[in-house]
Amino acid sequence: MRKIISILVISLLLFGAVSAFAGGQSETASDKPINWKFSLAISENNFMSAAWRAWAQKITDETDGRLTFTFYYDDTLVDSLNAYEQLVDGIADIADVHRFASSGFVLSEHWKAITTGVPVGHEADVSYDLWNGFPELRDEFKDVYVPAQAFNGGTVYQILSVNKPITKVADMKGMQIWCEADFNQFVLDCGATPINAPFPEVYSSLQKNLFDGMMIPTETLQSCNFAEVCKYVNMVNIAYATGPGHIINKDSWNALPDDIKDIINSQASFVEAENAKGFQASEASALDWAVENHGTTAIYPDAAAAAEFNQVLMNANLKVAKELDAQGLPGTAFVKAVAEYSAKYN
Q1: Single pTM value for the model
Q2: How far apart are CA 13 and CA 53, in angstroms?
Q3: How far apart are CA 181 and CA 202, in angstroms?
Q4: I need a labelling partner for 70 at 20 to 30 A (CA). Which of 52, 101, 169, 236 fits?
Q5: DSSP per position, 244-268
């Protein structure tokens, strides 16, 4: 009898030990670090890359290492032309991707053309206003998760010119201006000819006086050496909303514990602010560098000229908006909302 009791006691002790071990293993498995693949189209030394790395480090620190990140730059993880589809398929967990209408991003593909004119310093504020105000915009991101309004960091464009200072709209008449296609209508309405040549051709074309200038952020004076070929920076301060992004694979997001989701959501303003600080610092240092090393001159339009540039910009945006209206999208309402939202920050 004693033998039987001893066997039962030992069995119970062993069962308890096994159960405790299994429970410990389960708890360890739930705390196992998750590593996300973060794909960036930009280079490692870009200020936006630095902002997202700082964001990732904060997330890692605040989750006690339960969520970590591996960064891939210059679209080395995904194909730039199919980055969105590959993100949805899970090749990356988080990525900045081109917003093609063919992928369902119709409003987003025209983002710069329909959100320009926002006050400098409030690009993310207007972006949130648009996100909250237009379900049609949110619908474009229904298959992914948006962690912040921080897709674009370099949101303020100026006009760099080779030989001619620009102080008012009329000064642009007859000029050949390289720009992204988003700004074609604005450049046309200023009386100039928009050029959308491949970016690698721009420097040599400016150097040969084939182009008279370009629309681009000031930081390119140094990063692309445009100070060598452009004498003037015409400070028109054409800013657009930052935009939703980067975006997260929905399965990756849904697999996260709720507390980690809360931490990510709480850090949206951090990356938005880091992007803004990085851009402002690069703009200021590049202009100082260009003035000191190449004698670049900054031209500041007076209040009347600035108002004229803004009116031309608004009219150009409305023309693009009508094309979206024809597709059943709220293009005109979107542009008017940008003006309304911007007015409260001015």
Answers
A1: 0.88
A2: 49
A3: 14
A4: 101
A5: SBSEEEHHHHHTS-HHHHHHHHHTH
- Give φ, ψ of 140 to 5 degrees: -65, -20
Mean pLDDT of 16-37: 58
Orientation angle between helical segments 123-133 and 331-345, nearest 10 degrees: 140
Angstrom distance (rounded) from CA 8 to CA 1: 11
Quote the tokens at residue 127. Answer: 């972006």
pLDDT, tens digit, 9 for 90 and up, residues 39-74: 999 999 999 999 999 999 999 999 999 999 999 999
User: In 3-state terms, what secondary structure has residue 247?
Assistant: strand
Q: Determine the Cα–Cα distance for residues 238 and 119; give it in Å rounded to an integer.
A: 9
CB atoms within 10 A of CB 101: 13
d(CA 29, CA 48): 34
C-beta separation of 180 from 278 below 8 A: no
Tokens matching residue 198: 């491949």
> Pairing relation of β-strands 193-195 and 156-161?
unpaired
Structure tokens at 209: 């006086």
Sequence letter at residue 238: I
DSSP-derived 3-state class of residue 341: helix
Q: Residue 192 has which token pair?
A: 């100039």
Sign of CA dihedral 146, 153, 273, 335: negative
> 195-218: string of b/e by CB count within 10 Å (b at 16+)?
beeeeeebbebbeeeebbbbbbbb
Residues 6+ apart with CB under 8 A from 45: none
Rounded distance, CA 288 to CA 297, Å? 10
Confidence of residue 20 (pLDDT cuts 50, 70, 90): very low
* Phi/psi of residue 166, nearest 5 degrees: -120, 115
Closest by alpha carbon to 47, among 148, 133, 131, 153?
153
Pairing of strands 156-161, 232-239: antiparallel
**Strand blocks (E) in 250-303:** 297-299
Retrieve residue 123's tokens.
């690009």
What size, in residues, is the chain? Answer: 346
CA distance 283 to 281: 5
